[in-house]
């Protein structure tokens, strides 16, 4: 049976990779040299003619990979596309800096970086001198403001936009795209259109794009803040808007990548099952932790940790809120382990084979599944400056993940226990944000990462625990993967 599952998983992976790589067919994709060393990629249709430049900027905690659906769509349409990693993000080794709350602080620095990328792309022989800025979320404000600077933009595509710089007249040729399930940003898209015409509705073009006065709001159906980047409506509208601005007629394909990426991730996770079945079989799990002690271990740290850490301010790691996350997870895990140890539930949990099995789990999660994520979803391969961040996060992530695995039986516990344990941890993070919103608001960005981690990696940990009878092996291995995932997600930041 495990060989059948392995072959099916490998087949689905191969099919997904073939489909995703097909979207690159006919394109020349190469590094773009940018002043200051900003990592950037240039997308061109092979054998194409001169065309406007499109500069694509990602949102907070994003990277070039996340914006690739737009890059591929517009390059296939014949545009010269430049996508890059902002300071502190992805492969960019330079941390973000400045005052994040001031327009003349971090915002101005990110605008300057966007301008450097635009100048580098405009110097390419295929560039015709015109430029478009496309940005998502945080970058929507950056590109709106940059379009009013030098080099000025002939059009702007703002995805999931929030910006105080939009007026009825500026920027030129503004297309605002939002997902139906990001209600406040959908309202912002309509507000931008209604600055021009109070009666404007979604999908209505106002003004004349060919004259520089165009404006349009688009609500992509049934998608949220990330799904809007993959929605065919978003991609098609962006391409057609630029065609209207520049009087072009594009015939390139619009890549439908979301479903293939989901299939690839599911197939890669599924491959973990036959690999787990290949591990040495272990003894049946011991007796279940008594309900009272389970609830004490699951709920006590969720209440105590946010309150205990509330007065503390830790600034060690050069990454926004990573210090707090590492400390929160570490204290949380130590309380869990202390309660379990007092009840005698740690005895026999660490035979010698635990360590190599934990290493195999970490290797699969980081190298195999992480490699898929890095290629098709978001940056997962760190530059050297992030290794210290990953190590610091591991000091907290490993105790937490180990305690959580032992508490839930490493895949053998009942579903309600898994939901209570993981839900309590997420609730503790949200409580921490509520206690210090100004200082920890960026934690809200990583909550989806942790939920996705539980769904993908937690499933694999369960397979390992059920096969080996060693919850600690999956817990330690997945703690290392969690530290890695958070370490490459948090933007690096240098105060000042």
TrEMBL record:
<feature type="transmembrane region" description="Helical">
    <location>
        <begin position="324"/>
        <end position="342"/>
    </location>
</feature>
<dbReference type="InterPro" id="IPR029058">
    <property type="entry name" value="AB_hydrolase_fold"/>
</dbReference>
<feature type="domain" description="Serine aminopeptidase S33">
    <location>
        <begin position="51"/>
        <end position="182"/>
    </location>
</feature>
<keyword id="KW-0378">Hydrolase</keyword>
<feature type="transmembrane region" description="Helical">
    <location>
        <begin position="385"/>
        <end position="403"/>
    </location>
</feature>
<feature type="transmembrane region" description="Helical">
    <location>
        <begin position="354"/>
        <end position="373"/>
    </location>
</feature>
<feature type="transmembrane region" description="Helical">
    <location>
        <begin position="440"/>
        <end position="458"/>
    </location>
</feature>
<dbReference type="Pfam" id="PF12146">
    <property type="entry name" value="Hydrolase_4"/>
</dbReference>
<keyword id="KW-1133">Transmembrane helix</keyword>
<dbReference type="InterPro" id="IPR022742">
    <property type="entry name" value="Hydrolase_4"/>
</dbReference>
<feature type="transmembrane region" description="Helical">
    <location>
        <begin position="258"/>
        <end position="280"/>
    </location>
</feature>
<feature type="transmembrane region" description="Helical">
    <location>
        <begin position="415"/>
        <end position="434"/>
    </location>
</feature>
<feature type="transmembrane region" description="Helical">
    <location>
        <begin position="292"/>
        <end position="312"/>
    </location>
</feature>
<dbReference type="GO" id="GO:0016787">
    <property type="term" value="F:hydrolase activity"/>
</dbReference>
<keyword id="KW-0472">Membrane</keyword>
<protein>
    <submittedName>
        <fullName>Alpha/beta fold hydrolase</fullName>
    </submittedName>
</protein>
<feature type="transmembrane region" description="Helical">
    <location>
        <begin position="470"/>
        <end position="494"/>
    </location>
</feature>
<keyword id="KW-0812">Transmembrane</keyword>
């Amino acid at each position: 049976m495990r060989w059948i599952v392995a072959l099916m998983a490998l087949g689905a992976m191969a099919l997904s990779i073939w489909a995703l790589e097909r979207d690159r067919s006919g394109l020349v994709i190469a590094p773009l040299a940018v002043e200051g060393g900003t990592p950037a990629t240039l997308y061109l249709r092979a054998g194409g003619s001169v065309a406007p430049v499109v500069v694509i900027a990602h949102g907070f905690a994003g990277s070039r990979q996340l914006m690739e659906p737009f890059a591929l769509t517009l390059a296939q349409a014949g545009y010269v596309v430049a996508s890059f990693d902002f300071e502190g993000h992805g492969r960019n080794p330079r941390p973000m800096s400045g005052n994040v709350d001031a327009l003349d602080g971090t915002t101005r620095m990110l605008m300057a970086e966007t301008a450097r990328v635009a100048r580098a792309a405009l110097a390419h022989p295929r560039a015709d001198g015109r430029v478009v800025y496309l940005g998502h979320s945080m970058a929507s404000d950056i590109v709106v403001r940059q379009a009013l600077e030098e080099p000025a933009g002939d059009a702007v595509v703002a995805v999931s936009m929030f910006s105080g710089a939009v007026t009825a007249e500026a920027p030129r040729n503004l297309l605002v795209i939002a997902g139906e399930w990001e209600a406040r940003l959908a309202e912002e898209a309509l507000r931008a259109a209604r600055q021009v015409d109070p009666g404007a509705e979604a999908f209505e073009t106002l003004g004349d794009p060919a004259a520089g006065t165009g404006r349009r709001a688009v609500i992509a159906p049934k998608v949220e803040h990330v799904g809007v980047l993959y929605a065919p409506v978003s991609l098609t509208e962006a391409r057609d808007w630029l065609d209207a601005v520049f009087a072009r007629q594009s015939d390139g394909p619009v890549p439908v990548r979301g479903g293939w990426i989901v299939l690839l991730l599911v197939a890669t996770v599924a491959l973990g099952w036959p690999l787990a079945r290949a591990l040495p079989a272990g003894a049946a799990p011991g007796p279940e932790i008594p309900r009272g002690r389970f609830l004490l271990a699951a709920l006590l740290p969720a209440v105590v940790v946010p309150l205990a850490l509330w007065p503390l301010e830790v600034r060690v790691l050069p990454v926004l809120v990573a210090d707090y996350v590492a400390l929160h997870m570490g204290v949380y895990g130590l309380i869990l382990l202390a309660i379990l140890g007092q009840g005698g539930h740690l005895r026999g949990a660490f035979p010698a084979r635990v360590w190599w099995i934990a290493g195999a789990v970490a290797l699969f999660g980081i190298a195999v599944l992480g490699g898929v994520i890095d290629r098709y979803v978001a940056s997962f391969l760190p530059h050297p400056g992030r290794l210290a961040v990953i190590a610091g996060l591991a000091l907290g992530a490993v105790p937490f993940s180990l305690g959580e695995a032992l508490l839930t039986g490493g895949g053998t516990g009942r579903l309600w226990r898994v939901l209570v344990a993981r839900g309590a941890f997420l609730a503790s993070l949200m409580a921490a944000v509520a206690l210090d919103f100004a200082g920890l608001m960026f934690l809200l960005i990583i909550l989806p990462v942790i939920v996705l981690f539980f769904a993908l990696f937690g499933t694999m940990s369960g397979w390992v625990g059920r096969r080996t009878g060693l919850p600690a092996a999956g817990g330690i291995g997945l703690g290392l993967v969690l530290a890695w995932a958070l370490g490459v997600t948090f933007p690096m930041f240098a105060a000042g």
